[in-house]
Amino acid sequence: MNKPFYITTTIPYVNADPHIGFALEIVQADIFARYKKLRGHEVFFNTGTDEHGVKILRKALELKRDPQEYVNEYAAKYKNLLPILGVSSGAHFVRTTDSNHKKAVQEFWRRCAAAGDIYKKNYKVKYCVGCELEKTDSELVDGKCAIHPNLSLEIIEEENYFFRFSRYQEKLLALYEARPDFVVPDFRFNEIKAFVERGLEDFSISRLKSKMSWGVPVPDDPEHVMYVWFDAFVNYISTLGWPEDEKSFQKWWFDAGGVIQFAGKDQIRQQSAMWQAMLMSSGITIPSKQIIIHGFITSAGEKMSKSLGNVIDPVAIVKEYSTDALRYYLARHIHPFEDSDFTTEKFKEAYNADLANGLGNLVARILQMSDQYFSNPVDLSDRRKPLPINQWMDKFEFNNAVAALWSDMALLDNLIQQEKPFEVVKTDKERAQLQVSYLVKELSRIAENLQPFMPDTSKKIQEAILQNKKPNSLFPRK
Asked: Could you list the residue ranges that cross the membrane (predicted)?
C-alpha cells in the first residue's frame, strides 16, 4: 500500500485580492496532489490564509473596518478561488484566526519555551512591513528591501520575545547534508545552505500589544502578541489537528515523512530554515519532507504591482478562457523554478495555438472520424499504457511533462497528415478503421495523462471516446 502524502501551499496574507502569483502556487501544488492520487497515494492537501500581523491591521484601519470582519471577507475570496482554479475537492482550508489554530500556536510556543529557546530582550532593528521580516544592512539595496523597494523600512525599538535561531545552525546543516533534495531546485538549496553557514541570528517572535494588537496572545503575557511568522508557520500542523488529534498527526506527518511545501522564492529562509528550527525546538522529530521554490510572475518584464496597474486577475482569465486553459498555461509556459513573464497577449497567443488549434482541433478531428467510421466506441482494452511522465513529475518539472504530452499530440497530427484516413476510407474502409482506432487509443493515453493538469478537459475527452462522439468545441478560438 502506498504511503500517505501531505502537500501544502504557503498561506497568503489577506491584505489584497488573490493574484496570479498565488494562482501559480496553488495550481502547482494541486497538479502534484492529483498526480500522487493517480499513483495510488492518499493525499492531504492544505492551503488557507494568513490573517494576523501589522499589514492586515493597517489595511483594516485604512478601510475603517474591524480586523476580524475584514479578514473574514478576504478569507472567503481566497477560499472561493479554489474551485475556480480547479483545486481538488476535499482540500483543507486553514485560517490563522481559527480558534483551534490559535490554541495550537500557543501550545507550540509553550513547547519551544520549555526547550529553552524563547527569551525576552530589548532590541532595535530595521523592519520591512512588506516581508514582515527584520532586515540586516547586507540584505538591503540602496537602503531598501530588495523585494519591496517601494516601501520605507521602519525602525522597531522595543522589548520582544526572541527565538534562539542561533542554536540550530549545526542541526540545520546536518539536515541539509542528510537530505540532498530537501529544497528544490538545487540553486535555491545552495542559497539557503550558504545563508545558514554564515551564522544565524535569533529573531523576534512577539510584538507589544499596545503597538500591534492584531495577533495571537503570547501565553502568560497579556502585554505581547505573537509575531506573524511564528503564528503562521504552525498552520502546517494545526490543520492536521495537532496537538489534540494524535492519530491524524501520526498519519499525515510522521507516516507521510513530513510535508511537501510549495513556496515562492521570497520564502526560502522562512520555510527551509526558520520553520525547520522551530519544529526541532518543539520536539517534532520529523522535518518537512521537501520544499519546492517557484519564481515570481512578472508582467512585460516588470514585477506585478497594483500601483503600476499590471496585476493579472486569475478569476478574469478563467471567466474568459476557462479553468483548464489557465492551469495549462501555468504548467506549460510558466517555469516551475525561474521567474516568468505573463501578459494577456502571451496567454491568448498560447491559448489559440496550443489549445484551440492544437488539442481542441486534434480531438475534434479524431473523434469525428471515429463517429463516422464506427457504429460503436473503439475498444481500448489493448491500448498502450500512458506515457510515463513520472520522470518529470517527481522532479516537479511540470513544464517538461506537459511538453512531452504535446509532443505526443504532434505525432498524431503528423500521422493524420501522412496516412490520410479521411481519404483512405473512400477505397479501403477497414484500413481506415485500423488507422482511426490507433488514433483514438493514443488520444485516450494522452487524455489520461492530462488529468493532473487539465482535469475537466481530460474527463471530457475520455467521456467523448467512450460515447464515440465528437465533443462540443473544447477551446473556442478567441
From this structure: none
